[in-house]
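Q&A log
Question type: sequence-to-structure
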Amino acid sequence: MAGCVSRVELTVSCRSLLDRDLGSRSDPLCVLLQEVGGGRWAELDRTESIKNSQNPEFCKKLVVDYYFEKVQKLKFAMYDIDNKFFDLNDDDYLGGIECTLGQIVSSSVFTQPLELKQGKPAGKGTITISAEEIKDTRVVYLEIEAQNLDKKDFLGKSDPFLEFYKQYDAGMWQLVYRSEVIKNNLNPCWRKFSVPLQMFCGGDFNKPIKVSISDVGDTTSSDVIGEFTSIAAKLSETGDHVVEFECIHPEKKQKKKSYKNSGIIRIKSCKLETEYSFLDYVMGGCQINFTVGVDFTGSNGDPKSPDSLHYISPDGINEYLIAIWSVGSVVQDYDTDKLFPAFGFGAQVPPSWQVSHEFALNFNPSNPYCQGIQGIVDAYRQILPQIRLYGPTNFSPIINHVARFAAHSAQQGTASQYFILLIITGGEITDLDQTRQAIVNASKLPMSIIIVGVGEADFKAMEFLDRDDGVLKSPTGESAARDIFQFVPFRQFKNAPREVLLHMVLAEVPKQLVSYYKWQGWPPVKPPEIKTM
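Response status: OK
Response body:
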């Protein structure tokens, strides 16, 4: 396969979208898909959802690997998000376009009318996409507060949020960051945040930067409080002191001679740091440890029956084996010794025939390691006729087992070991509260958890654990330190190329690994050489 030439960030905005909501405007979100062959499309990335806007400017950049010698067909699909949980099948389609990445990168700004179907115009709305190559790994970290902002709400104060824009060709402004909203506060202090230097100012510290503060609207568009324009170099002059800027509302300044400002924006800190990538850690010596857990509960059915999820077909496969091979074949390349612990749960195990939720697939509890992915497959095949499928479907014992190893590694204080636990299950979880607690505990460790659901079971509890919409909490209310959980229903990818399944299963792991070491402040064991400006 040809090597990736570069990575590009795609910035998306729209104008005059269809309005699907009654009593308010649409809440649009953009989904980026790539053609994977045979007329099939796989999701690559998605933006945030913006409330009540027919002219959204999306802050989240869509990142794509760019290959010069490949035709990369992309689809940009706009949806109106009406529910807390995003569902392509339930939410209103506002239109989209199909194009190639080559068309986008060869245009300074790529604008097209939206279509409801290919060749059928939506009748309203355009999409604009611009591309920028990712060339710099440095990141700008900022701490910002404001004082004495104008009151915008009739019955309250203001609900302010920040937006940063950089200036590009022809004097146009491009949104690069949008902060969280702070409710009912005229003296807000926003959480420390980071923006890649490339995105922030294109690496040019003399590039104009516009900072805007607005009051979020419940049913209408946001209301601007004020703004200021400066350069990146001026923001970074904080050092040991705060840099202040007047927050100016352009229309008020024009109309009122007595107008001073609409508040003060205070840059408490603006620092430039290096952002290490997944490859920086892997190439710098981080080993990825892969563990497999297999569900042997009775809900899978008798392995001798063709209806069983554990039934091995005449060609030697079943969904469990496909999942092990698919994920393991990728992960094994990052582990030098190729020794992988593998466990079963939910079965009666000889000789005592007690139910176990943490037994070694090779029946060797003191040395549960299998040699390579083939070793896991061989152990699975050998153990299947020797155990009795039983229940219930408990995940927490295996999660806690791997977490103990991850905790021991974390005590070393270096980015040297990361753990991935793959659980393959055919049944609905029965120890949900214990599993929630186990995941929250594991979120503080160098560890990711992937669950692949096989068969036709109801996996609603899994979808509850995979909280892309918010933060998972333990039964006692403790929030997960970071997102480490990924659930993938195998049935959605039965007829898709293996690459599609792999993308859904493993796409989150690199950023989960980076997020852990960034949270701990640990650089790679062997950091790369960083070029200075």
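Response note: DSSP finds twelve helices and 26 strands in the chain.
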